[in-house]
Amino acid sequence: MEASVSTRAWPVADEAFALVFAPGARPDLATIRRIVEEGGNDGLVARLSHEPPAEEGWVEILASGLTFDLRGLAPAEAEPLPASAQRYGFAPADENAPTAPGEAVILGPAGHIAAGAGLAPVIRTMAGLAANLALHLPLREILWPPARSAMEPAYFARLVLNWLAGGAFPALGLTSLARAPDGSVASQGLAFFTGAEMQLEAGAEGDPVADIKLAVRLVDYLVANGVPPDEVEICIGAEQLVLEPAGQGRKIWAWRAE
Asked: According to the lineage, what is the superkingdom (predicted)?
């Protein structure tokens, strides 16, 4: 049977998680229904709020009063795979291992809340829903387009559920951190949560591991506290940092105070 053509207005793919499966391993509607109906024991408080014909390959899920579309289900065609540049949580042997192209199922805000995709309640609920699905489905990886990141499923679920329980923001996944040629550490994807990216000047000791660890904690601080309107000095652990907004607040420069 040919899949029918849905007139659903889909959210922008850049504001959605891509759940990547091996070819032929994508779930169908019945599988998602079973997971959602049985998921309460694992913290998944959700229900299917709209079920079109299974051949359309999508379903609407209600969680915490918000609705999300899951599209690309079998037997419909898979969704396009977003690009990724940074990989987190994979075993070293799997970091660069070649694999057959995967097939994507996309989880994103439903049309009426898509404009608020970057709001904290929406992203937290969507991330929690993705984490719970990752615990029940044979995912290969999870892609997050704002950070151009790919995450190992168990790593993603562990970090997201810890964050939702009051732990640190998943800086190495929901954002990406990369060292620039001058040794500084720059974020990608932080602007989705705060409106600005950050760049942390390299430390005088020339310790790249320490710089990345500090950048992770700085990202957590900025997500929790927002972008300062003016230059400010803050304390993160034993480090005193100066934060300076630039580019009309679209960039945060950070360096260790002397």
From this structure: Bacteria
Sign of the four-CA dihedral 147, 153, 159, 165:
positive
Is omega for the bond preceding 53 within 30 degrees of 0, making it cis?
no
Could you report the per-residue pLDDT of 20-69, keeping only the tens digit for each? 999 999 999 999 999 988 765 455 678 999 999 999 999 999 998 899 99
Q: What is the DSSP string of 167-213?
A: ----HHHHBEEEE-TTS-EEEESHHHHHS-EEEEPPPTT--HHHHHH
- Residue closest to 28 by CA, chosen among 127, 103, 125, 118: 103
The identity of residue 59, as a single letter, is: V
Residue written as token pair 């759940």: 19
Report residue 208 CA to chain centroid gap.
Answer: 24
Whether residue 110 contacts residue 69, with contact meaning beta carbons closer than 8 Å, is answered with: yes
Residues pairing with 245 in the sheet: 252
Q: Residue 144: which residues within 8 A CB-CB, separation 6 or more?
A: 17, 18, 151, 173, 174, 189
pTM over 0.85: yes
The closest of 109, 168, 105 to 133, measured between CA atoms, is 105
The tokens for 98 are 């070649």
Q: Which residue has the tokens 């904690």?
A: 217
Task: Give per-residue pLDDT as tens, 88-102.
Answer: 999 886 655 546 689
Q: Are 194 and 169 in contact (CB under 8 A)?
A: no
